[in-house]
Amino acid sequence: MAPPHDEKAEIQVNEDSISQRSISNVLFIIAMQTEASPLVNKFQLTEDLDSVFPKGVPWVRYHGKYKDLSINIVCPGKDNTLGVDGVGTVSASLLTYASVQAFQPDIIINAGTAGGFKVFDLYGVGSRQAFYTPNLAKELSLKVGKLSTGDSLDMSTVDETAIHANDATVKDMEGAAVAYVADLLKVPVIFLKAVTDIIDGDKPTAEEFLQNLAAVTLALDQTVTQVVDFINGKSFSEI
Ligand code: ADE
């Protein structure tokens, strides 16, 4: 996590270069199958069994049309050796890179769960700026905050110091990796994170995460659907 920089300048660049373009091709990066499956059903997407990805990688792609939008949902899939979802920054960055190359999306949406802190009321600016979506946030009453990413569910004391020093209000395991690739390839990106656990609360993080995963995923999927409905038929300057 790096210090905040000039948000206004970033927004100006965003606005100048792409504002009038309409959004028709959306790429979702979703780390866990549990998080992706309800959306695959909701948007009636089909799995690509003849994958555009290199042979042998566990990455999974679902695609289809929803309203006026072409939608791709990609997941890292199950780790070839351990059989668990390929969460974390390494697979997220590779998957994002390969998917942008293959599907040339107008926008990337990284949707998933995150840990939260007791106080979540800051309007934050990250070291990489997500696409500025004031209308979307207002219309759907979404909280806007700064996301901190690391490859661990738990928070070490070193992480804690950095997270607090940079005013992050949610903690996930993929966001910064997706932001890095989106910035590299100049694709606008937004992050939708639903909180499963309170990191500085009383309960053990992993236990609380598993306890809340199903219910929070449901809430996330409802919000993602609202976001897709809002984006449908709009240009970047309207979101
Ligand atoms: N995803 C859900 N909870 C999380 C946490 N506490 N840290 C990182 N990623 C998470």
Describe this structure in words.
The protein has seven helices and eight strands, in the order H-E-H-E-E-E-H-E-H-E-H-E-H-E-H. With about 240 residues, it is α/β, with parallel strands linked by helices. The two termini are about 25 Å apart. The relative contact order is 0.21. Strands 1, 2, 3, 4, 5, 6, 7 and 8 form an eight-stranded mixed sheet that branches. It is about 40% helix and about 20% strand. It has one domain: Rossmann fold, CATH 3.40.50.1580. Strand 6, helix 5 (about 155-165) and strand 7 (about 170) form a beta-alpha-beta unit. Helix 2 (about 35-40) packs parallel to helix 7 (about 205-230) and helix 3 (about 90-105) packs parallel to helix 6 (about 175-185). It binds adenine (ADE). The site of adenine (ADE) has 12 residues, from strand 5, strand 7, strand 8 and helix 7.
CATH class: Alpha Beta
Structural class category: alpha/beta
| Number of helical elements | 7
> Low-confidence segments, ≥5 residues, pLDDT <50?
1-5
The string of secondary-structure elements, in order, is HEHEEEHEHEHEHEH
